[in-house]
Amino acid sequence: MNKKIWFITGISSGLGKALADAVIRSNEFVIGTFRKNSEVEAFNTLYQNKGKGVLLDITDMDKIDAVIQEIVTEFGQIDVLVNNAGIGYSGAVEEASIDDVRKVFEANFFGALKMTQAVLPHMRSKKKGHIIQISSHAGVKAFAGFGIYNASKFALEGFSEALAQEVKPLGIGLTLVEPGPFRTNFAGRSLMRSEKQISDYQDTAGNFRTKLDGVHNKQEGDPIKAAKIILQHINSGSETLRLPLGSIPIKTIGMKIESLQSDLDSNKELAMKAVY
Questions:
Q1: Are 113 and 159 in contact (CB under 8 A)?
Q2: Domain count of the fold of the chain
Q3: CATH label of the domain that carries residue 62
Q4: pTM
Q5: Staple 144 to which of 29, 103, 114, 204, CB 3.0 to 4.6 Å?
């Protein structure tokens, strides 16, 4: 196949769906994951010869290698991997159950890690490819009431920043996409919430929970515009590691940089006393 082949996880809605649509409109080929057979069948009927839907829950680690191998056998390549599927979580750190934390990390971290590991051997064999990790501005700056989600995206950013250095000499690129609030299902059905609520955190995590509940479908970000930007960014050959999307990430990531610089400046003399 002469078309560039994109493998995108979680294309049933939101940014994943918008990106799949944008790639297909650009005359490139999309392979996308769904968690329902009915969605796979509907996609394959609608996009014959333009895309292929596959049934895969990225938290089912045992199936990822087999699905990737089937795709490579059928199509011969995966040019772009987009780890998009994931879930949100609101609640104070103390309020979060360990079971909930595991669910968030299975989707946002381990699923993306396993997908990346499964695709890399095929990209290495061809000495080309690109990995897009859909992170978040919350993968750079943490917010009270969002700590568990922050932790999962910080972890994604951590291994991806190292991986980018490891694969660049092999002809493989990597981009961390860091959206702000977008009009998707993130603050709706895709958002997990801690069952426990502790009154001492009402003014911090509680306020954040209330804010999230009130912004659903009112966020500044347009997923269709974001999809076009991601496609343009990849096709431009840009080698920048991070791609923030929206005005809010520009502000919040800037705040993080300022905070880091302030702490570095304030503690530089103390830091130097720790060396011989």
A1: yes
A2: 1
A3: 3.40.50.720
A4: 0.94
A5: 204
